[in-house]
Amino acid sequence: SEAPRVAVVTGSSSGIGRAVVETLAARGQRVLAVDFNPEGRAVAESAGAHFFEADLTDGAQCRGAIDTAVEAFGGVDILVNNAGIQHVADIAHFPEEKWRQILDLMLTAPFLLTQAAWPHMQRGGWGRIVNVASIHAKVASPGKAAYVSAKHGLIGLTRTAALEGGEHGITANAICPAYVRTPLVEKQIADQARLNAMDEAEVVEKIMLAGAAVKRLIEPAEVAELVAYLVSDGAAAVTGADWGIDLGWTAR
Ligand code: NAD
User: Fold this and answer.
1) Is 229 a catalytic residue?
2) Residues 82 and 18 in one domain
3) Best substitution site from 16, 103, 132 to test ligand 1's pocket, by max atoms within 8 Å of Cβ?
4) Are residues 101 and 186 in the same domain?
5) Could you tell me if the CB of 185 is within 6 A of ligand 1?
6) Which pairs from 188-194 meet CB under 8 Å and 24+ separation?
7) Atom number in ligand 1 closest to CA 16
8) 8-18 pLDDT per residue, tens
9) Which range is the signal sequence, renumbered to this chain (predicted)?
10) Nearest to 226, CA basis, from 155, 182, 174
């Protein structure tokens, strides 16, 4: 078994982030779970992780998360940038404020967290950065300009970190899931059902899984398994890549 590492996981109160916290903690990693939703404290503590409450649209709070991990555990070895939100509106009506919030949370925060964690990873000569992107890092959908732009940008950050990290033992990878069964998606299913006057099962089948070979939603624990692989010692040669976990969607 591998030496315990220190992991910082953002967006830990729910969905994919919660599953990543539980999976890494169960494998013996020391985890700092970071979220602006205080319900994340109970989630973290029941997994044996620490919790730091932070709004990651704020740069000082991003740096505070890394400082907290260093104070609690003596360093940072693994960073999982996962916190994210969605806002659906066409470009003609997309609110500037929502655009900025999404870019701050989903692109600037991963950059600032990477920057703050970097010297700690460099010092140990070992680091793992996993950026939770999306199938929307590779293809677009109408109505999701900010989300699609942030996720495409996150691939660029991932590749740059991979190039700069190579000589320091730091890898950086992005993962690109299609629809995962989380509150973020459950809200979208409800919205689409209203918009298209369909029931929710019909929305999942006809809209969400239209392009999928495997006709079901992805479970958060399945995404966490991929993260666990990418942060392992065995994945040292795997860097700068964008990993699909998309039910065969992009095979088409
Ligand atoms: P979720 O809504 O279940 O969880 C997101 C978490 O981020 C929540 O705990 C929320 O409190 C936290 N968060 C939101 N704003 C924050 C802020 N300002 N500061 C700190 N924390 C904040 O969502 P999820 O579906 O688990 O999504 C997690 C990531 O996976 C996101 O980046 C999302 O874009 C990505 N993703 C999700 C899917 C999917 O189908 N669910 C698919 C592809 C990619």
Assistant:
1) no
2) yes
3) 16
4) no
5) yes
6) 188/86, 188/88, 191/88
7) 26
8) 999 999 999 99
9) none
10) 174
